[in-house]
Give the backbone structure.
Amino acid sequence: MSVSKAKKTTLKAYLQKKNKVALFAFIVIWLLSFVVFINTIVLGDWMKIGLAFSALVLFLVPDLVSYKLRLHLPATLEITYYLFIFASLILGEVFAFYGPFPFWDIILHLLSGFVIAGIGFSIERIVNKDKKSRIFTLIFAFCFSMTLGVLWECLEFSFDMTVRTDAQKDAHVRQISTITLQRDGGNQPVRVNEIEKTDIHLSSGEVITIDEGYLDIGIMDTMKDILINTAGAVSFCILGAFYLRNNKKDVIVNNILLTKD
């Protein structure tokens, strides 16, 4: 038997043992996303084309990781991942759910912080084979989640600065504290309260008025996302601590942990 045929047989065996619910979820969500991708092409919106195409590629990651690294991904983790990509890139970005549904971003960052901490937890246990202390495992899981969360925010900032996207969503601010308005050069912040509107004067002479205060262009969104990510990571670590203490018996934790085949 040739090497290529052997690999093909191995891949076929992998697909045959894949959880049928997870496989069904993948097929349905991927096809829905593909329809959205075709629609973005018809509309000619290059930004949305890129987002929809990215989603189609990212849907393949769990199977590639599982197949290449011989890892077992629980069906719950796989389905959660598919739903997360669909909710963030397709519904959130392509269909702009982030605007009318403020809680959308909060739920996704809370979920990602929780699940990524679980993945970090799994990686530490697989690599070190339970030789490290419980505290080390929990700290690693927390830091793994926070690191990826911060890197994601850096990625959003990079896209906003280079491609001129708006991944870091704006926020209306009614009050600020700043030393910039301190006329005597001191370090005492000047507090500006009850800002009603802001006028932006362009070099062309056009004036753009921002109602409902001062327009923050990303800082509040970024810090809110990091704080929510922190809450998700801490939530997993609390469950992870009980999991380790109770001889690895926890339904929620067991359903999102990677294991080595």
